[in-house]
Write a structure and sequence with these properties.
Helix content is 41%, strand content 29%. The chain is α+β, with helices and mostly antiparallel strands. It starts with 5 loop residues before the first helix and ends in an 11-residue tail after the last strand.
Length: 138
């Protein structure tokens, strides 16, 4: 078979696609547990920044300990939507995770309110896929 024939090119591309597709699937499966841990660690870091919590160290355990010692968590359903509510035990600040549609994809963040809910104490973003430099500076 000639290397320039359409059949050769089609077979070659099919084989390459199958090899690399299988390789990507193996890597995805092998690292799925690590990905979940990294996502939780990122969420914990964002919660600590939003509530301005002191953290002893940079490990995932240090962030989790700071949250466990200072933050209470509950889920509520309001208007058909599940909300994650966080409350800082010592100051009474209330935080919740929000999301909405951006220009390109969803924007997810954490909003922290003062105990009387009159002012925003802090806002941090968990995830966005906006263009850096344009929508990235929300």
């Amino acid at each position: 078979m000639k290397k320039t024939s359409p059949a050769y090119i089609l077979c070659f591309m099919t084989n390459i696609s199958m090899v690399f597709g299988a390789a990507i699937s193996v890597v995805q499966y092998a690292t799925s547990g690590k990905q979940e841990k990294n996502e939780q660690h990122h969420k914990n870091r964002t919660i600590c920044r939003a509530f301005r919590l002191p953290v002893d160290g940079v490990s995932a355990d240090a962030y989790q300990k700071a949250i466990d010692a200072t933050i209470s968590y509950k889920q509520i359903t309001h208007l058909g939507r599940l909300w994650e509510i966080y409350t800082r035990k010592d100051t009474g600040e209330i935080g919740f995770v929000f999301s909405g549609q951006g220009v390109w994809d969803r924007i997810t963040g954490m909003l922290v309110l003062l105990p009387d809910m009159s002012k925003i104490a802090n806002i941090q973003f968990l995830e966005h896929k906006e263009t850096p430099g344009l929508g990235g500076r929300i």
